[in-house]
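Q: I'm teaching a short session on how sequence maps to structure, and I want students to see two examples side by side rather than one. Could you give me a first protein with its sequence written out and its structure tokens following it? Keep the formatting plain so it prints cleanly on a handout.
A: Of course. Example one:
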Amino acid sequence: MPFVHIEILEGVSDEKKQEIVTEMTNTFQRVVGIPEDKVFIFFEDLKKNNYAKQGKLVINHDT
């Protein structure tokens, strides 16, 4: 039974998250043979002011 944790910057729509969930669930079914009711996916939306790269907060960085 897989538990998938996805950390993603805030701003991804619920529709796009649903697309990710569908694709990942289908991949587990196809590759590992796990039924969809056994795949758990958790999203954590990261605020841009709580994430940094290249020495700068993402909120202040051109991404």
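Q: Perfect. Now a second example for contrast.
A: Example two:
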Amino acid sequence: MIQLKIISGSTADTTQVVRRFPFRIGRAPENDLRLEVPGVWDNHLTLEFQKSEGFMLRTAPDTFAAINEQPLTSARLRNGDIISFGSAKIQFWLAAPHQRGLQLRELCVWTLLVGVTAFQFMLIYRLIR
């Protein structure tokens, strides 16, 4: 998963988590991230994931975008890159991984420790008698 932090515009300081690809950004209502700021077209950008190349940014024909102030039409994204298009700026981040709960494993370990301790007390009691 990745997250996009919107840096400029009316929705600045908000974060959008991306779970499905391709992820479309633009002004149109059918986009995954809708930005209504000057200079953003209906279908401005598309984020894609390719196993061989990683996260890719592709612009629609005749649109402008820049990554870290370098103009482009297609590029591989890296953690922390700033994507500029129109008057919008978005920062690309890898999202924090989801950690599974460890309660069941911890319960099993504690149960095993209690069982071993009880077994040792039983052995000591039988040896003393």
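Q: What should students look for in example two?
A: Point them to this: The CA atoms of residues 4 and 16 lie 5 Å apart. Also worth mentioning: The radius of gyration is 26 Å.
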